[in-house]
């Protein structure tokens, strides 16, 4: 009897234990299923968020591109370096400008996990392909957009736009193909930094400037500090100063600060604090950033460059200096930049037949540029035109290089170069090895009758610019749109 009772109790205990085990297994299964659903839901939300943001930034934008500049190759190749230009522009209504005041060319190499970049000063002198005379490089995009809009108004198919002309110009100057562009406006720059909680920057010196016309107010003290979006924008854009010309910032200063802030943004975005704000940063960035990178290319770069930080970014020195209303690049430094970028792209030598050396100031131009920067504006056109002989039998003399135009008193070109910008000693006219010096194609301006080139000048062959007949007063048509 006792033995039977013991067996019954043991059987009941086993039954009770089996029931508990089944309940535990059910709970574990339910919890696992819930976890999977939660993780899957979060992963799906993350994927949807990223995909939605990429759809926005890669969507064709009428303000930056047209079918002329659309990229046909949208695939990503992990072993192929990719070049791109970062364009920063001020799209505020009160400025009414299409100039790209920030221009940085970069090469991303997925194999070396390295990004090499160089800043191009906004006032760099260039010859735009198909255009006459010299221009500042920040007006190239505006010229291309003017061409596109003019063609569209005339019901013609555009052959050029701002992006295509910018890529073409940089291609000839640097000797590498420019595969893509990334455009961001100043409001987006400020908003991204604000969403990240600011960036840490070591301000080199006191910067003070106020311009009520566009509501610009810069007041920064030297030292390591956290800058918000407005302060960071003022830091990279500071040019003039309330205290006078000796406190002005040079193009070298601005380029260095641009690179410094970009590195600070990269480090902050990759930090724990930055990762927790990735969604809000993506929301803000998608509204202000546009690119012709494809979604697959962006995803591929993001995967290959995971863990990316400022230590993997190499900045190249451009040797920029100011003279006579333009910024020039030193010959040796430009050659070094070209070689470095070509090596990163994996191209042997230049991919263009004739390099565009317009950013280099030749020896024969130095005296003219120096005198132009110190000259005042004079109105002597009529007197000189009247005194000029109409007929002469003398042999034609070699024309002097074009004199950079005198600028109005309140413009940047008429300001004394910042004290930290030294003009290099006598440079020889740059001519690539094995080539003969190119013939001077610009007409020599009549003294006292030089007008500053407008931001928009039509290419050679278009009839919107009137060319004066011989012995008639020389006039220049402003073709700005």
From TrEMBL:
Which ranges are annotated Polar residues under compositional bias? 463-481
* UniProt-annotated stretches for the region Disordered: 364-481
The residue ranges flagged as biased composition, category Low complexity, are: 367-390
**Compositional bias (Acidic residues):** 422-431
Give the compositionally biased regions (Pro residues).
Answer: 444-456
Q: Which residues form the Cell envelope-related transcriptional attenuator domain?
A: 99-269
Question: InterPro entries recorded for this chain?
Answer: LytR/CpsA/Psr_CW_biosynth, LytR_CpsA_psr
Q: Name the family.
A: Belongs to the LytR/CpsA/Psr (LCP) family.
Query: What's the protein here called?
Result: LytR family transcriptional regulator
Naturally occurring in which organism (per UniProt) = Brevibacillus invocatus
């Amino acid at each position: 009897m006792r033995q039977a009772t013991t067996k019954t109790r043991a059987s009941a205990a086993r039954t009770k234990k089996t029931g508990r085990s089944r309940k535990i297994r059910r709970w574990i299964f339910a919890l696992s299923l819930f976890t999977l659903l939660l993780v899957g839901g979060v992963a799906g939300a993350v994927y949807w968020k990223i995909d939605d943001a990429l759809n926005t930034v890669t969507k064709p934008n009428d303000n930056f591109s047209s079918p002329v500049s659309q990229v046909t190759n949208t695939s990503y190749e992990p072993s192929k370096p990719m070049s791109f230009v970062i364009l920063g522009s001020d799209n505020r209504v009160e400025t009414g400008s299409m100039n790209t005041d920030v221009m940085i060319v970069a090469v991303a190499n997925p194999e070396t996990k390295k990004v090499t970049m160089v800043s191009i000063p906004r006032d760099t002198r260039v010859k735009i392909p198909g255009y006459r005379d010299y221009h500042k490089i920040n007006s190239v995009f505006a010229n291309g957009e003017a061409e596109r809009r003019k063609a569209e108004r005339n019901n013609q198919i555009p052959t050029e736009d701002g992006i295509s002309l910018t890529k073409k110009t940089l291609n000839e100057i640097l000797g590498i193909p420019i595969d893509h562009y990334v455009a961001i406006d100043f409001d987006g720059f400020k908003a991204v930094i604000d969403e990240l909680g600011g960036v840490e920057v070591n301000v080199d010196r006191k910067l003070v400037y106020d311009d009520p016309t566009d509501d610009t107010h810069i007041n920064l003290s030297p030292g390591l500090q956290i800058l918000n979006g407005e302060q960071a924008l003022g830091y990279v854009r500071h040019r003039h100063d309330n205290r006078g010309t000796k406190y002005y910032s040079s193009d070298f200063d601005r380029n260095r600060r641009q690179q410094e802030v970009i590195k600070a943004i990269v480090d902050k975005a990759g930090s724990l604090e930055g990762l927790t704000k990735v969604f809000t940063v993506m929301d803000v960035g998608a509204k202000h950033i546009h690119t012709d990178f494809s979604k697959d290319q962006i995803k591929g770069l993001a995967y290959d460059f995971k863990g990316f930080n400022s230590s993997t970014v190499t900045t190249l020195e451009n040797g920029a200096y100011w003279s006579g209303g333009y910024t020039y690049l030193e010959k040796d430094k430009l050659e070094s930049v070209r070689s470095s970028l070509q090596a990163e792209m994996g191209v042997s030598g230049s991919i263009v037949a004739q390099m565009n050396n317009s950013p280099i100031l030749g020896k024969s131009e130095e005296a003219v540029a120096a005198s132009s920067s110190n000259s005042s504006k004079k109105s002597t056109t009529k007197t000189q035109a009247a005194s000029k002989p109409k007929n002469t039998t003398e042999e034609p003399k070699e024309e002097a290089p074009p004199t950079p135009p005198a600028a109005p008193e309140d413009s940047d070109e008429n300001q004394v170069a910042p004290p930290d910008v030294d003009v290099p000693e006598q440079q020889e006219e740059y001519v690539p090895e094995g080539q003969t010096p190119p013939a001077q194609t610009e007409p020599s301006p009549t003294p006292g009758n030089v007008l500053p080139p407008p931001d928009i000048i039509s290419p050679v062959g278009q009839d919107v610019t009137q060319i004066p007949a011989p012995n008639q007063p020389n006039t220049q048509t402003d073709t700005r749109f």
